[in-house]
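Bug #77: duplicate submission created two jobs. Keeping one. Sequence:
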Amino acid sequence: MLKKTGLLLFALMLVGALLVACQPETITETVEVPVEVTRVVTETVVEEGETVEVTRVVTETVVEEVPAEPVMEDKGVVLNWNFSTEPPTIDPSLATDTTSVDIVFNTFMGLTSSDPVTGDVIPNLATDWDISDDGLEYTFHMRDDIPWVHYDPTTGETTQVVDEEGNPRFVTANDVVYGVKRTIDPATASTYAYVLYNIKNAAPVNTGEEGVTIDDVGVEAIDDFTVKFTLENPAGYFPSIAGMWVANPQPQWAIDEWGNKWTEAGLINTSGPYVLEEWVHGGNLTLVKNPLWPDADSVQIDRIEGVMITEDSTAFAMYENNELDTTGVPQAEIDRVKADPVLGAELLNAPTPCTYYYGFVNNKPPMDDARVRRAFVQAVDRQSLIDNVTKGNQIPATTLAPPGIFGAPEPGTLGLASDAEAAQASLQEYLDEKGMTIDDFNALGITLMHNTSEGHANIAAAIQQMWKDTLGVDVKVENQEWKVYLETVGKTTPIEEAPHIFRMGWCADYADENNWVHEVFNAQAGANRLRRNCTDANCSDSTASEFDDLTVQAGIEQDPAIRTELYAQAEEILAAEEAAYIPIYHYTTVQVNKPWLTRNNPPVGGNDFFRWTIDADAKAAASQ
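Kept job's structure:
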């Protein structure tokens, strides 16, 4: 899945408002108390036949309303979290990025899940599953006790959803079928539908091929709590895909009633350990524990109060002020954190299965020439970037899939290494053939784009300088807010609006190369943000290449050794022969966690807040 990393006056005002929102709420009431009031009274009286004025002091007791002592609202156990950006969506069919997936993962249940330590597939909504002898049919047996629930933000009540006849709704096989088909239906416009293409007829239906309909997709409800998938080809990793958010059961009745608004607070129906309490777009998003979830007793954190701070430095300042329980460490702060005895003890720096890369728009001149792409690749000094900018012990990457993914090459064994002389020669060969000077090349206006982030900006500035120093190339750097950015770097954005180079990251949905080179870069069956082998400028169609054929063949192959070799060939073609993108580094987690927070870092899938715990007393004591 896509990875994002975590007007000055306006920014400061916004941050101030969010900081206030993070503070504990108090409830102020009034009470009636007796109060002695002394006043001077002047009266007219008649004494000995004469009218005179008499002044006297009167003390009396009255009842007045006065403010009571402020009472702290009991919110239960609260996780203060930074989503880092506005989630583009929390619709399971439409989510593609880590921010959105984190929310979906905690509010909906998939058929399977992953072990938070090993990444192995484990039961979730499904209790177990059967596989046919030919490997083409997967039958999942489901729990029958997972309710669909609705949270009312005005009353704070979570209630079970009922049908038209007043019967309580539980998650059924039909809800799974609806969710899968809704993702595949081209009318939904799910950009992640290709993940389900190994389901029979999913690809032709999603791409609008004539002669097949949504009813032909290979998913069916055998009974209320048994669902069967029929595949195009055997795929041993299919149980992982069956648990992904795009295959989640979905509430058809709510979607039919509310349309695109169905995911808003107060409208959404969910099935997971948390419900959506509030979503202030661009500001904050709050999840609260679902008391009707059958496993609710195992969920210790009552609320996730999330802000959307894009500036790494601001988020880190909030962490140091005990306003966030965990956050990433800004690049500029890593040395200080490592040297600080307190922050150093709170630091986690460990490998994680994600890869940071720059993609070329392969059909936009001059990036439509492999010699230019190769020059830009080999001009990047990855180790220098890690040592001097990111500083998180990341692993230099020359191919896509990181260690720990089945079929991934050993780092540095394939692809293009940093080589300044080779980079210069490659660009010069292109210039000579075109009869261009470097000034002519610079006049083309090469643009690098990244989503808004201090960390991404620092990396872009360093690589921009490498290209200037090594190649003499001037590259303009631009940035966009995450949701807009995802649209801009899509393969069907008009070519004149697309950047020449874009930043992206990929994190494991499941631990198999099929999720990497095939689902990310295959020109026909993957996201293909690189616009490889496009038949037109906006890449509405594409042709297959040797690389594409290899990733398809590897996905079908059942022999693990042969699969590994096929994926190695594909990685080499993509990274070296085509030089279609720049693998930069394999991620490490560089985060700090408060000592009162016990959390994990799942190797695949979203953050599982429902498995985390907080020592509320320790947190409260630190905040006093």
